[in-house]
Amino acid sequence: DGGITQSPKYLFRKEGQNVTLSCEQNLNHDAMYWYRQDPGQGLRLIYYSQIVNDFQKGDIAEGYSVSREKKESFPLTVTSAQKNPTAFYLCASSAPGGEKLFFGSGTQLSVL
Amino acid sequence: QKEVEQDPGPLSVPEGAIVSLNCTYSNSAFQYFMWYRQYSRKGPELLMYTYSSGNKEDGRFTAQVDKSSKYISLFIRDSQPSDSATYLCAMSAGAGNFGNEKLTFGTGTRLTIIP
Fold first, then answer.
1. Which is the most buried residue in A23, A77, B19, B114, by most CB within 10 A?
2. How far apart, in whole angstroms, are the C-alpha atoms of residue B97 and residue A96?
3. DSSP type of residue A101
4. pLDDT at residue A1 greater than cutoff 70
5. Does A99 have pLDDT greater than 90?
6. Which residues sit opposite B32 in a β-bridge?
């Protein structure tokens, strides 16, 4: 089945630690996105990539980094510089000229 | 003031009732309007997509856009327990990949349909 796979489902970060969230898609989509969802707030865009080897900062990129070495993969690293990382992280993709975002099932990140 | 305002609820209605969910916005450049449904601890899925003003119907769901009032609505007829979820409105001025990189989401309304 085509779709977006995020892993792990739950992740715990210790103080000062970098953690990486995985996002893989087999929809052959060019564009991929990372969102952060906090209770009482709308989805906020962290980073997006419209093509391999290129990505742009979204509204809240500070403390995060990404790479796009393959079309299928768009991992997100939450660095120690992100002081409030506890949130539900969602990866999405869309086809060229497509208005529809396809979302993964999300990763809940918590701080130990 | 937020660009998109959405009543967070929670909203509880009996099975079979008509549900009305709403968002208001302040950016007159928005012209693409969407409703996403999100089940607990899952990713959102697109329910309805509308361009500019007007109505769009899909089964039990109807999306309305009133650009003059900067107001959008989602109506659910004959509501079912399986409709219990959080509903997110989203909008964009477009351009590029339909402006997906510039989507602005509402905070979501949590809906419960009581059997």
1. A23
2. 6
3. P
4. no
5. no
6. B51, B92
pLDDT confidence bin for A96, thresholds 50/70/90: confident
Compute mean pLDDT per 10 residues along chain B, 115 residues long, and list them.
Answer: 86 96 94 94 92 91 95 97 96 66 88 96
Q: Do B100 and A33 touch (CB under 8 A)?
A: yes
How remote is the C-alpha of B63 from its chain's centroid?
8
Non-local (6+) Cβ contacts of A89 within 8 A are A6, A21, A34, A35, A36, A37, A46, A76, A106, A107, A108, A109
Q: Contacts of residue A39 in chain B, CB cutoff 8 Å? A: none
| Contact between chains at A31 and B4 (C-beta distance less than 8 A) | no
Q: Tell me which chain B residue has its CA closest to the CA of residue A97.
A: B97
Selected for mutation to probe chain A from B103, B104, B109, B110 (highest A CB count within 10 Å) is: B103
Q: Inspect the interface and report whether the beta carbons of B97 and A98 lie closer than 8 Å.
A: yes
Over the stretch A36-76, which tens digit does the pLDDT of each residue have? 999 888 899 999 998 999 999 999 999 999 999 999 999 99
Residues from chain B contacting residue A103 (CB–CB below 8 Å): 43-45
- Residue closest to B107 by CA, chosen among B92, B76, B82, B86: B86
Token digits of residue A61: 């990129």
CB–CB of A58/B100 below 8 Å?
no
